[in-house]
Amino acid sequence: MKAIIPLAGRGTRMRPLTHHTPKPLLKVGGKPVLAHLLDDVLEIGVDEVVFVVGYLGNVLREYIEEAYPDLEAHFVEQKVQDGTAGAVALAEPYIDGELLILFSDTLFDAELSLVQRLPETDAGVLWAREVEDYQRFGVIVTDESGAMTTIVEKPSEPISKLANIGVYYIRDHALLFEGVRHAMSADPGKGGEFYLTDAFQYMVDQGARLVTAPVAGWYDCGKPETLLETDEHLLATTRGGVDPEATLEEVEVVEPVRVEAGATVRGGRIGPNVTIEHGATVVDCELEHTIVGNDSILDDVEAEHSLIGARARIRGTEGRLFVAADSVVDHTD
Questions:
Q1: Taking residues 263-290, what's their average pLDDT?
Q2: Among 207, 136, 221, which Cα is nearest to 178's?
Q3: What is the pTM of this model?
Q4: Which residues contact residue 243 at a Cβ distance below 8 angstroms, ignoring those fewer than 6 apart?
Q5: Which is nearest to 20 in space by CA: 214, 237, 310?
Q6: Are residues 38 and 79 in the same domain?
Q7: Same domain, 73 and 196
Q8: Which of the ends of the chain has fewer CB neighbours closer than 10 A, N or C?
Q9: Which residues touch 176 (CB under 8 Å, ≥6 apart)?
Q10: Cis peptide leading into 6, omega within 30 of 0?
Q11: Is beta strand 138-142 parallel, antiparallel or unpaired with respect to 148-153?
């Protein structure tokens, strides 16, 4: 099985952190969002991935080739931001069978392995989650059997509360790309974009059966506040703890926290919901709901609901901080 992962967005909602770091490489639970996705798909036997890149594409490529050297990776550039259908269209030359399509704004708890026992009558799976604020999402309308009948972007009327989370399995790849071409032959939607969901609607209209499948959890990583909420969830479940090779001296620790190997924390208080990545040094700080990037140095900092990039230097400040990698903030001068 192959996978397509579009990564071409500029990550404007995560600035300034995305000035030098692609949004999919921002870390949550001490691990890049993209790595969480790749590890999930590799577990079910995906061994070839088409990455659709754009902004900082060279950085993404370097990371993928170094972190996943055994993965057969293809990189195609989306030069024009013409939407999700436009991104998937670029991957067509590499796709000759069943595939997964995943977007890197969210993490999820989903049983991807169900595709291995999907009835032959089903052309694909759309994972979905019931939500109350349905107007924010594309929603899926299903028949009594759970198969999609229509998919609607951000409905004004409560036709469905089943939100499309952006994770798809498609068995009939030929019909998918026929639908993509059909979607892109119509007038573009808002912002000049073409939507992959229109290709799914085309598939259904041609008689394909796309079924929905539930997710136990769905965690947004697309905005600063939701990235921190996702980090909080991971610390409380699978990614928390203090590494034995971290150094903690005279510091109050309020669980859950994650302190990685090579990190040093002296004095002050950390937690709850604080991640301190490897090589960081935190001295006399009070941190809550904060991610501190690797090799950063913080001295006399009070921060909450903050994101601090790798190798930052921050001294004598307080408040809610969003600091890009390699930045210097010093309020003691």
A1: 96
A2: 207
A3: 0.89
A4: 259, 260, 261, 263
A5: 310
A6: yes
A7: yes
A8: C
A9: 88, 99, 124, 170, 199, 203
A10: no
A11: antiparallel
